[in-house]
Amino acid sequence: NGHLPIEGRRKSCWYEEEIEDNLRWCFALNSILHTGSSQYQDIALLDTKPFGKALVIDGKLQSAETDEFIYHECLVHPALLQHPNPKTVFIMGGGEGSTAREILRHKTVDKVVMCDIDEEVVDFCKSHLDVNKEAFSSSRLQLIINDARAELEKSKECFDVIIGDLADPIEGGPCYQLYTKSFYESTVKPRLSEGGIFVTQAGPAGVFSHTEVFSCINNTLRQVFKYVVPYSAHIPSYADTWGWVMASDAPFTADAEELDIRTKQRIKGENRYLDGKTFASASTLCKAVRKSLAKETQVYTEGTARFIYGHGAVHK
Amino acid sequence: NGHLPIEGRRKSCWYEEEIEDNLRWCFALNSILHTGSSQYQDIALLDTKPFGKALVIDGKLQSAETDEFIYHECLVHPALLQHPNPKTVFIMGGGEGSTAREILRHKTVDKVVMCDIDEEVVDFCKSHLDVNKEAFSSSRLQLIINDARAELEKSKECFDVIIGDLADPIEGGPCYQLYTKSFYESTVKPRLSEGGIFVTQAGPAGVFSHTEVFSCINNTLRQVFKYVVPYSAHIPSYADTWGWVMASDAPFTADAEELDIRTKQRIKGENRYLDGKTFASASTLCKAVRKSLAKETQVYTEGTARFIYGHGAVHK
Amino acid sequence: NGHLPIEGRRKSCWYEEEIEDNLRWCFALNSILHTGSSQYQDIALLDTKPFGKALVIDGKLQSAETDEFIYHECLVHPALLQHPNPKTVFIMGGGEGSTAREILRHKTVDKVVMCDIDEEVVDFCKSHLDVNKEAFSSSRLQLIINDARAELEKSKECFDVIIGDLADPIEGGPCYQLYTKSFYESTVKPRLSEGGIFVTQAGPAGVFSHTEVFSCINNTLRQVFKYVVPYSAHIPSYADTWGWVMASDAPFTADAEELDIRTKQRIKGENRYLDGKTFASASTLCKAVRKSLAKETQVYTEGTARFIYGHGAVHK
Amino acid sequence: NGHLPIEGRRKSCWYEEEIEDNLRWCFALNSILHTGSSQYQDIALLDTKPFGKALVIDGKLQSAETDEFIYHECLVHPALLQHPNPKTVFIMGGGEGSTAREILRHKTVDKVVMCDIDEEVVDFCKSHLDVNKEAFSSSRLQLIINDARAELEKSKECFDVIIGDLADPIEGGPCYQLYTKSFYESTVKPRLSEGGIFVTQAGPAGVFSHTEVFSCINNTLRQVFKYVVPYSAHIPSYADTWGWVMASDAPFTADAEELDIRTKQRIKGENRYLDGKTFASASTLCKAVRKSLAKETQVYTEGTARFIYGHGAVHK
After folding, report:
1. How confident is the model at residue A273 (pLDDT cuts 50, 70, 90)?
2. What share of chain D is helix, strand, coil (3-state, %, to 5)?
3. What is the CA radius of gyration of chain C?
4. C266 and C132 housed in the same domain
């Protein structure tokens, strides 16, 4: 028709996310590959120009093809490498499959239990994320569809490493209870073997954003475990630095050099992001964040909570 | 992963177009249905929330499912109804198929020649635009892949109605030559039968935008034909009022009432937008545009041209 | 610092409005001239590239410098010209001042009462909209800060023309009660002089958008007045066709020619948009809208209402 | 007028930047405080909701009120603290004034020469950036309007520290020549005192973005100086990790503890971002970037260059 075609204007389709109330992050789109929904949440797989395939749940980017390795290497390897000989691992959440994939690279691991509440999301990822196909079909992986808390409460088994790969602790959100002092004390700790390690994703950890939940998760874990290590890394597709906290009643003894040795011995294939030096750097926070974490006094309990933008209402 | 899902934020994907240099128009997207490209242009079929399926060529919306009927009823029916007995129609461009579809609703019409330069676009529309499937397969339609000018120049046939369904006349653009005085005089007019009518889409016709090309196309046709009628209609998905110009050496004699009678006699099915009163209204332009058209002195010739935003470089 | 400057990327600042749920309209900005807020609403005066100075209330464009003449000429002149000799006019709302400005161009008018509820908005417009400075200081203008309904109810005066320049009738919105059958019957009609005319803005009137409120306002007025004329015009900065409805118990006798004669006799200066032909065209709606209006059965009463996107909660 | 006001939609005005070709970053705006232009570039001071006042040059964010301290502490303090007793400092560029401000906090410093080519930008920042008012009026600051290269070439003075606070080295860009091997060898090095240190901002240093210019600047400096230290930090308003490179022919001997001691002795007021541990972390790059830097072979010479998005054409 008469509408004028214009040469060179090709970036017509965009994915757009409000990272915070007044801050938007937009990726040019190649295509919308798959969309679906479960009883808990909406899910989409987008093909983005800057970050490849992107998994989006309820309008929030979960993970992007080009840089999810940063998140998942940081979540999994420090804890598994600090442990002298991890054989069993429990994942709270993790339905995307990438956390299991990284764990299964560890030759010492016999058994991974992945417990996610949302079967449709798990099925969606199983079908569409080629990079995790092998992990999903591993005989060492046991997949359970259930609330991670209920599952851990009824379980009698102990694990060498327990990993929290859940949505952030928002008051009224689905995962809040999985970040409280009482949950860590009464449910997680009893399910760790002697010398066991707990690690959780801990939300944004930037110079400003670390006060949303990172400092509180860190402080809550300090109430329950003897040794607690917060660390962080910048993830380009998140437009922020992200945080994790690792905790145990046994000391973390492996230094950078020892981490590199264990990496070579135990992990199949090569890490792209994490090695001993990277972890040393990641666990040395900048002055502003370090001081802020030191001063944090709030503890997540059933009664208290902190708000974060968005008031998430679904379970990851 | 740890990224926070937010309830209710579902409008993540958007189609965005710069209608003018400082003006953007954005539709929420359901999906990107098909994409392709030809030697001339890029093409996409999007599923948009506000306007249904949208055909986008080189980053410019061509036509949207929910309101393309306005454009195509306005382009086709006034000329065919003013003609006493239209049997043969030639379409310059029109690869989308909707113009042919509207023409084929006229029972008097024996033969429609549609001449578009871009075979891939025609094939794309044939495959994906269900609403035009019937038209594309009509035995009364003859489809030619060629430059409309070259085709008309070599043709010896005459047509009762010739319809211009081309991109706007941009200097240096692919269609500029199909809007000049010499083209109308030497190529179009000789191919019209006695009493034949020429009609063309004529670009934006809003209070401000009509000076881009509408007033000039109208003035150019006034140099060549005895009777010239500019008219316009607001098309929601274009975010503007659109214009068409109808021209002939025979007077346009049918009034609103007669148009309604002929519509009933000749057109299969019912129009949604156009009837006698609508055309009376559409061809009575507002004071600002009327005055501006009256004062226009420019004529499109091979030597002169007027710029429009975008400098289109492809053929529709 | 080290961030890379890029030549030619100057359109960094944008005004953005969600016209409907899935539809965005964005203007490049030169500057944000003034911002303020009242007890009822937020207000801003922006300098936009495509439409000049734009008055924005609660995130919705109210009026733009380059094309507000279309809205205000259409709101004011048809009613005042159809009236044989309008001396007194009452404006419900109209705090921007442009409606008063257009009325005051009529030499027959002795007195304009403008009744707006929001003093801060009125003061803001008085200070910042140069184009209305003269109108605001006219001795023929009486400005009242009050709810228009309360003011009309307590008034004992009658007016030749009453003009509704209010926000759309949204259930639960501030202006809903100023569009009901009972308000028109018991409050407006008794305040019209013999042969008096009521006219109101009537929301979007596009091929699709006219069902939001336009068709209902028209139908409600049909229940109360003998003669009702809906009409519409495309306003570029609104990205839509807009509607008005004029109503009276006296017939509208002036045809296009007579409107032009009265315009010359009564109105100082020249209209840009409206003349007799323009009004003839504007009041001849397209087939789709005409059929839809004819079939409309809903009437605004205190008990019924129709929802529109946005659920406005403030008074204009 | 009749347009519907909507409660709660307040984020109407946005600053938008294309960080890369397919990536957009948008801040909600409070206001556009000042705009201006020089012979070289356009300049604006915006008041943004997420990052406070933001200085934008030619459509690219230069520095934001809430987090510019990260960039400027990282640019200035490592070099000045590693130097045993810095008395004189030369800034190439730095017109914003923040680099001078940080340098002037050092009690050892007698003289700061700031050499920026764009007088209008310097004047704009002097007038509008309150946080740098004191620095601009310091008697220890000598401000020169000139090309930094020409100034250094004609200078006979030597400096303890030379700081590059310039736009990235884009081929054809205004600053490219200030990043070449020959410039470092023939112009910078001769102007460093015995034991002097050169440090430069070095563009984005993220897991992906470090290949744009960071790895090349680092490699170029390795050709010229004996000791070269690349380091990085995430800057929220840049939506990326940023890089700097420090170089000298004297070894960098101060460890984290010594840096903290010197900070206390020499710097007035307290750093917010940088201390000894932070620098240790910042200068320990992640595995991916470390490997990539090690493998980099390209050197900036007058003849070679690397393209970066945007082709900057102006001098900072």
Report:
1. very high
2. 35, 30, 35
3. 19
4. yes
Q: Does D29 share its domain with D153?
A: no
Work out the mean pLDDT of chain B and round it to a whole number. 92
Residue D44, token pair as written in the block:
């604006």
One domain for residues D44 and D120: no
* Integer Cα distance of A98 and C244 in angstroms: 59
Question: Touch between chain A and chain D (3+ CB pairs, < 8 Å)?
Answer: yes
Same domain, A163 and A264: yes
B38-85, pLDDT tens digit by residue? 888 889 999 999 999 999 998 899 999 999 999 999 999 999 999 999
- Domain boundary, last residue among C44, C63, C82: C63
pLDDT digits (tens, 9 = 90+) for B119-154: 999 999 999 999 999 999 999 999 999 999 999 999
Name the one residue in this structure whose structure tokens are 């150019």: B220
From the list D67, D160, D165, D240, the catalytic residue is D165
Statement: residue D314 has pLDDT above 60: no
Based on the domain organization, do C81 and C160 belong to the same domain?
A: yes
Please tell me which of the candidates C1, C11, C314 has its beta carbon nearest to residue D96: C1
Res B119: pLDDT: 94
Residue B3 confidence class, pLDDT cut points 50, 70, 90 = very low
The shortest CB-CB distance from A23 to any of D27, D234, D288 is to D27
What angle, rounded to 10 degrees, do the helices at C256-266 and C68-82 form?
A: 100
* Contact criterion met (CB < 8 Å) for D23 and A50: yes
ipTM of the complex: 0.89
CATH number of the domain within which B20 lies = 2.30.140.10
Distances (CA, A) of B228 to B187, B248, B301: 18, 7, 18
Alpha helical stretches, state H, C109-236: 119-128, 133-136, 148-154, 181-183, 214-222
Q: Using a CB–CB cutoff of 8 Å, tell me whether D1 touches chain C.
A: yes
Mean pLDDT confidence for B287-312: 77
Comparing alpha-carbon positions, the chain C residue that sits nearest to D74 is C1
Give the pLDDT mean for D273-283. 98
CB C274 within 8 A of CB B287: yes
d(CA C167, CA C165): 7
**B274 to chain C, closest Cα gap in Å:** 6
Are A74 and A50 in the same domain?
Answer: no
Number of domains in chain D: 2
Whether the predicted pLDDT of A304 surpasses 70: no
Please check whether residues C46 and C125 belong to one and the same domain: no
In terms of domains, do A122 and A96 share one? yes
- Is D24 an 8 Å CB contact of chain A? yes
Q: Which domain holds residue D59?
A: 14-64
Rounded-to-integer distance, Cα A210 and Cα A168, Å: 12
- Give D171-227 pLDDT, tens digit per residue: 878 899 999 999 999 999 999 999 999 999 999 999 999 999 999 999 999 999 999
CATH code (residue D241): 3.40.50.150
Q: Enter the tokens of residue B119.
A: 């075979």
Residue C249 located in a structural domain: yes
In-domain check, residue A5: no
Measure the CA–CA gap between B82 and C102, rounded to whole angstroms.
40
pLDDT tops 70 at residue C7: no
Whether the per-residue pLDDT at B5 is higher than 50: the answer is: no
- Interface subset of C 141-170, CB within 8 angstroms of D: 165-168, 170
Residue range D299-308: mean pLDDT, rounded: 67
* Closest to D167 (Cα-Cα) out of D126, D130, D215, D118: D118
Q: Read off the amino acid at residue B305.
A: A
CB–CB contact A17 B16 (8 Å)? no
| Residue D165 annotated in active site | yes
Q: Of A97, A30, A29, which Cα lies nearest the Cα of A62?
A: A97
Instruction: Compute the distance between CA of residue A236 and CA of residue A25 in angstroms, rounded to an integer.
Output: 11
Residue of A nearest to B214 (CA): A2
